[in-house]
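Hello,

Our lab assistant flagged a job as stuck in the queue for most of the afternoon. It eventually completed. Since we weren't sure the result was trustworthy after the delay, we are filing this so someone can double-check. Below is the sequence as submitted and the structure that was eventually returned. Let us know if re-running is recommended.
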Amino acid sequence: MRRISRVGTARMAVATAVVAAGCIGGVASSSAKTARAAASMGTVDWYSSLPLVGSSSAQTKPTVQGIQLALKQAGYKAGLYKIHYTSLNDATASAGQWTAEQTAADARQAGRDPKAVYYMGEFNSGASEQSMPILNDYGIAQDSPANTYVGLTASLKGVTQPGEPGKYMPTHKRTYTRIVPMDTIQGAADLYALKAAGCSKLAIFDDTQAYGAGLAAVLKDTAKMYNIKVVSLQSNSQVQSDYTSVAQKFASAGANCVELSATTASVGGTAFVAAVHSALPHATILGPDGMCTSAWVTDTKVLCSVATLDMKAYPGGKSFLKAFKQAYGVANPDPYSIYGYVSAELGLNALSHVKAGLSGTALRAAMVKALFATRNLSTVLGKFSITKTGDTSLTSYGIYQLTPHNSKADTLKFYKTVKPTKYLHAS
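-- returned structure --
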């Protein structure tokens, strides 16, 4: 063993102390930087506005849970900003669904909040017609996890109304995006599924709202692409307890398939299916995403479409389902849960690209710019981009089967994926 002198030992002790002090100083310096960075982070406010009372709540409450799950996993922060989230309700108990007055009030609440930069809503396309111009005037980035009406982002003869979508943009700048494919694609997916089920003569019923009437118009103009003839078109803005007369008109027209173009809040879905099944016992009945929920209680099997595919088959589907079950104790959540999650993912990504130190209109403008700059974003749904019109690049729809389960809910089960190649193109 080498002998170490006392002088050498002393020198080593001094050197060790210096190194130790340097390490402690380095740790302290790093901690201080982290603390300063945390202290310098700005705080922004996020809002969602969805109908949280009425039959649509079976879809919207899981949507909110999806949003909350994504934010919790992100630590309620993105980039250089902390996030405070508020869930608003655009429905009233008395109406049992969204109202124009409450939707406008939600949008104004967000607009008057100087820290508000992101608004997730609405669930109903008609509601977004109310909130979009208000939020656009305030310059707030808005993303819908559910809207499909064409006129919110584009125009299409025979489907959209005069002045759309420009009338929703008083600033002449786009601030609205959506992460579900529009009705030109949903309508084509529905027709594809109906054709595969043997449909040749289609009857359509809509609720006269922007979503229901808009989709009905798409179905009418797209049906010929799938060699389907539309034999009857019926509409009613009021929820009915008896649709016998409507079903009889369908039967008289020779329909062998029926699309219910509405939402669970705007139509008596149970009574409708009962009447149609009685008049046309062998007809295929299909509802779009507004009906695609276990809350649509039926007395026979029906089909429904929603942009959500088999969640287990998504790139992040299994991890999402596992996390959702851990957080909420639900293993098979409503399909819209994952769209709430992705709407938050979209916002988190955009906010992460916003530079520090911004506030007011500059911060809002930067958020909108980052939102529309989204390209090939990896999410639990897979990769997608936001187009210049604010639409998603995704084009697939999932077809689900609803089977009678009990008096309060049906069983909603994924059936197959449809990615239509023939559909109307809006501009």
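-- support follow-up --
The delay was a queue issue, not a problem with the job. The result is valid. Residues 223 and 229 are 6 Å apart (CA to CA). The longest helix spans residues 6-40.
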